[in-house]
Amino acid sequence: MGRVYDDVRLAGAYQAGNEMPEASLRAWVELIGSFSPRSAPAVVEIGAGTGMFCAALARWRRASLVVGVDPSVAMLAQAGRFNEQTGVHYVGGSADAVPTGGQLFDLALLSRVIHHLPDRRACARELARILRPGGVVVIRTTFRERLDALVYDYWPALRDVDSERFPARQEVLSDFTACGFSVREEASFAQPVTSGLREYHARMATMPQSKFTHLTAAEFQSGLRRLEADAAAEPVTRPRPVVERYDVVVLALVQPLDGSG
Ligand SMILES: C[S@@+](CC[C@H](N)C(=O)[O-])C[C@H]1O[C@@H](n2cnc3c(N)ncnc32)[C@H](O)[C@@H]1O
């Protein structure tokens, strides 16, 4: 499932289709950075994709180092194109094989990636290796039991698809606590992603997320037509921002694995 992002079309559509208004991205980065055990943290983003969070963390949280790891060459090419920045390095790798030494990072971000991992526990073990003691993992996702995005109003079949793909909260917590992490904080955080339905429609028309590959062409077109009609009916002068909510879990490394380093 993770390899879906090797698709050059999807990688090309991802950046524009998932950008956030600057204020929303900044709010997210402030929240994520607030969990860091130190100022100017060394950050690793697992499944960095096109690098939106890597660049923003370097820019606004003054991270001392940001390493974005992703197995997809196509996504990393987009990161180099759109989110190159001083202090940010993009490297090929995966959640269970990060090509760096141990005990290097203060904060690891996993944004919208946990559902792609074939072996979450191997990822937790790898993070226990590369984080410093006291370092934190910030998981940004939607747990299976809380699938509440607007996208499901237009493509209801995606709710079933996502309830298969997304892990339940307790499954994720168990995998990390088994590897030396303890739950430090859980939150739910929502920010506008587009200014209104017109912009949302324009984005969804590009199928900017892997979930759309699970729909037939007819299912996709039917949802898109309904969204287009609603967008056309929205008053141009009073668009209603589309808000997306995510679950956030923060786990602290309390017991580094033997032999890390
Ligand atoms: C939905 S994108 C998220 C990108 C970025 N984190 C964001 O929030 O915008 C998911 C990313 O996870 C990557 N991915 C898939 N399988 C992975 C794995 N096993 N380890 C690390 N990253 C993986 C994909 O290549 C893709 O770039």
Structure, explained:
This protein is of the alpha/beta class and 261 residues long. The protein has a single domain, classed as 3-Layer(aba) Sandwich (Rossmann fold), CATH 3.40.50.150. It is built from ten helices and seven strands. A seven-stranded mixed sheet has the order 3-2-1-4-5-7-6. Helix 5 links the parallel strand 4 and strand 5. Helix 9 packs antiparallel against helix 10. The model has no long low-confidence stretch (mean pLDDT 94). The site of S-adenosylmethionine (SAM) has 20 residues, from helix 3. Its EC number is 2.1.1.-. One of its GO terms (biological process) is methylation. One of its GO terms (molecular function) is methyltransferase activity.
Set down the secondary structure blueprint.
Elements: H1 8-18, H2 22-34, E1 42-46, H3 52-60, E2 65-70, H4 73-82, E3 88-92, E4 105-111, H5 120-130, E5 131-141, H6 151-154, H7 157-165, H8 169-177, E6 181-194, H9 197-204, H10 217-233, E7 242-253
Parallel strand pairs: 1-2, 1-4, 2-3, 4-5
Antiparallel strand pairs: 5-7, 6-7
S-adenosylmethionine (SAM) binds next to helix 3.
GO biological process, one term: methylation
Organism: Streptacidiphilus jeojiensis
Domain Methyltransferase type: 44-139
